[in-house]
């Protein structure tokens, strides 16, 4: 498993802190608001449906979700957000994509440039690294099957997801990571739900086509850069094509 995949697991564990939960709620509210611009009915708006489900899974109050939808549809006044993607390079030549939602692009791009340069990286031009990534559905399932149920075997899970159209599955000691096309994402998620298999996380992500091995000082600086980007208020998602040994990655985040 690549270090980038392990990074997602570490992020979920970090999400247990109050500060991280506050940032998560802010990002979820922005995502719901933007998704609702295309209609406030989740049944006919897949992006909104996923955003609402993610918010519910994160224990966001129903009133917060409702207000975010109403701001997106214009029923309530809200901030005029803009969606942008910044591209750059981190230590060791690692390619990084940063998905942004901001109400002031000039401010945000200046701050992004500062964050990259402070951590031995550099903000690049549009299109410089995006070609290295593909949009995929990513669903993470615990080996326990969710809720302390009978442990899931790889064969059992493969039977469910392949019939629903999944592309691939990777496993580590504690969880399975299922990969789908964007088109098959909803069908695979529904197949898991129908079998009572709870997902630890489910999202459409930008997945690197190839990875870059990073160690030592470069790895340390890279993780600091990733953390700094994740903590920025305007950042929704950060994707990178690094591969760091799992033990080294864990020690850098201990």
Number of domains: 3
Question: Which regions contain 5 or more consecutive residues with pLDDT less than 50?
Answer: none
Q: Identify the CATH architecture of the largest domain.
A: 2-Layer Sandwich
CATH class of the largest domain: Alpha Beta
In DSSP terms, counting alpha (H) and pi (I) runs of 4 or more, how many helices? 9
- Report helical residue fraction: 40-55%
Written as H for each helix and E for each strand, in order along the chain, the element string is HHHHEEHEEHEEHEEHEEH
Radius of gyration, rounded? 18 Å
Output the CATH topology of the largest domain. Answer: Alpha-Beta Plaits
Overall average pLDDT: 88
* Strand numbers in spatial order across the main sheet: 3-1-2-9
Short structural summary:
44% of the residues lie in helices and 24% in strands. By secondary structure, it is an alpha+beta fold.
């Amino acid at each position: 498993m690549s270090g980038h995949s392990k990074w997602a697991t570490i992020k979920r564990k970090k999400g247990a802190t109050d500060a991280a939960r506050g940032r998560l709620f802010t990002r979820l509210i922005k995502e719901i608001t933007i998704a609702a611009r295309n209609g406030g009915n989740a049944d006919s708006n897949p992006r909104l449906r996923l955003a609402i489900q993610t918010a519910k899974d994160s224990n966001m109050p129903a009133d917060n979700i409702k207000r975010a939808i109403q701001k997106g549809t214009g029923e309530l006044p809200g901030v005029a957000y803009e969606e942008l993607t910044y591209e750059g390079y981190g230590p060791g030549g690692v390619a990084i994509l940063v998905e942004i939602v901001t109400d002031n692009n000039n401010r945000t791009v200046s701050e992004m440039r500062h964050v990259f340069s402070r951590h031995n990286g550099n903000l690049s031009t549009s299109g410089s690294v995006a070609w290295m990534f593909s949009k995929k559905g990513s669903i993470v399932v615990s080996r326990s099957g969710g809720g302390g149920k009978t442990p899931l075997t790889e064969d059992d899970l493969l039977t469910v997801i392949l019939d629903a159209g999944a592309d691939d599955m990777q496993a580590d000691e504690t969880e399975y990571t299922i990969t789908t096309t964007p088109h098959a994402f909803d069908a695979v998620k529904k197949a898991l739900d129908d079998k009572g298999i709870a997902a630890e996380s489910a999202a459409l992500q930008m997945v690197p086509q190839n990875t870059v091995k990073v160690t030592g000082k470069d790895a340390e600086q890279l993780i600091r850069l990733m953390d700094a980007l994740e903590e920025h208020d305007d950042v929704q998602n950060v994707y990178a094509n690094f591969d760091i040994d799992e033990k080294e990655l864990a020690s850098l985040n201990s």
